[in-house]
Amino acid sequence: MRKILHIDMDAFYASVEQRDDPALRGRPVVVAWRGARSVVCAASYEARRYGVRSAMPAVRAERLCPDAVFVPPDFARYKAVSRQVREIFLRHTDLVEPLSLDEAYLDVTVPTIPSPSATATAEAIRARIREETALTASAGVAPNKFLAKIASDWNKPDGVFVVKPARVEAFLTPLPVGRIPGVGRVMEKKLADLGIATVGDLRGFAAEDLERRFGSFGLRLYQRARGIDERPVQPDQPVQSISAEDTFASDLPLEALEPEIRRLAEKAWAATRKTERVGRTVVLKLKTAQFRILTRSHTPDAPPASLAQFTGIALALCGRVALPPSTRYRLVGVGLAGFREREELLAQQELFVAPGPAPTLP
């Protein structure tokens, strides 16, 4: 049986800012540029008490917390701290799967440093992080990645929560189904229509029934409700794509999708800021009311440098959807693909991209 940790730095970007500037400690800090198109990259726990959350529009965060201190993000500094934390992980196991700058899965079934238990290993890692970076991290300890990720959020900030194999069913049964990754607002409503509010309710449905209703995701729901997750920790898996998508409560025409595309672009863009790699290809995904899936993409000469550029390309891709105006859409997604190392992309641009005006969609 595997012993998996999910370690998540507490309010990472905001905590780095508070650590480096004593005047910010104890104050509601929002890491974001000010402006109508800016989104929150991170919020301190003092700001979260007002309802401020990552990926929220900065103008809304300012309305919720007028006394918030807005700090522009410094990703170079955050990446340097992330590398420090990663090095601590690697002292304890070679099996480290980073999810972003501030979180990772670790397989400590056979730790590099002898330890009496996975919980002791988690505590040792958290202690080293505190000592070497003056920051705190929370950890989930469990037999698999799914359970460990839920557990890491249980005693935040600066806590540990353990899900022992014998307690998996008892732990999962009362949880709202929305705690299962992939269950968003729309899916939560569909499950509620079936009388499913908790993971325990979900466990009462057969795999065949869930698969018939929700396809392959239904089978995943069946497995997660039973705490089943066979995915191994995969070290050194570089980010290939990042996206955000949503299913509408009612089908919409193409001309009504702009607000949704802008909202999802903000969410996807905020997620891309957490990786050291750079994405270049903008992707628009649509699903019609008849479940036909369309994708349109564009790869500019240089990666999108701002949320505005990213959103502009995504909106322009709507012009490539050659379906009748009467077509209705049940889902839209916006993403960035073709991720490469920053240095590699810069070298390519210097060799092949001549200076000139910003590219437009053909």
Supply database-style keywords:
362 residues; Alpha-Beta Plaits; 37% helix; cytoplasm; 14 helices; magnesium; alpha+beta; single chain; globular; MutS, DNA mismatch repair protein, domain I; magnesium ion binding; 4 domains; disordered C terminus; mutator protein; 4-stranded antiparallel beta sheet; 12 strands; DNA polymerase, domain 1
Walk me through what this model shows.
The chain is built from 14 helices and twelve strands. The chain has helices spanning 12-20, 45-48, 58-64, 75-92, 118-133, 145-152, 168-172, 185-193, 199-202, 207-214, 216-225, 258-272, 307-316, 342-352, and strands spanning 4-9, 29-31, 42-43, 69-71, 96-100, 103-107, 137-142, 160-162, 241-253, 281-288, 293-298, 328-337. It starts with a strand and ends in a 10-residue tail after the last helix. By secondary structure, the protein is of the alpha+beta class. Helices cover 37% and strands 19% of the residues. Strand 5 (96-100) and strand 6 (103-107) form a beta hairpin. The strands form three sheets. Strands 5-6-1-7-8 form a five-stranded mixed beta sheet. It has a four-stranded antiparallel beta sheet with strand order 9-12-10-11, with helices on one face. The protein has four domains: 4-11 and 78-168, Reverse transcriptase/Diguanylate cyclase domain (Alpha-Beta Plaits), CATH 3.30.70; 15-75, 3-Layer(aba) Sandwich (MutS, DNA mismatch repair protein, domain I), CATH 3.40.1170; 175-225, DNA polymerase, domain 1 (Orthogonal Bundle), CATH 1.10.150; 241-352, DNA polymerase, Y-family, little finger domain (Dna Ligase, domain 1, 2-Layer Sandwich).
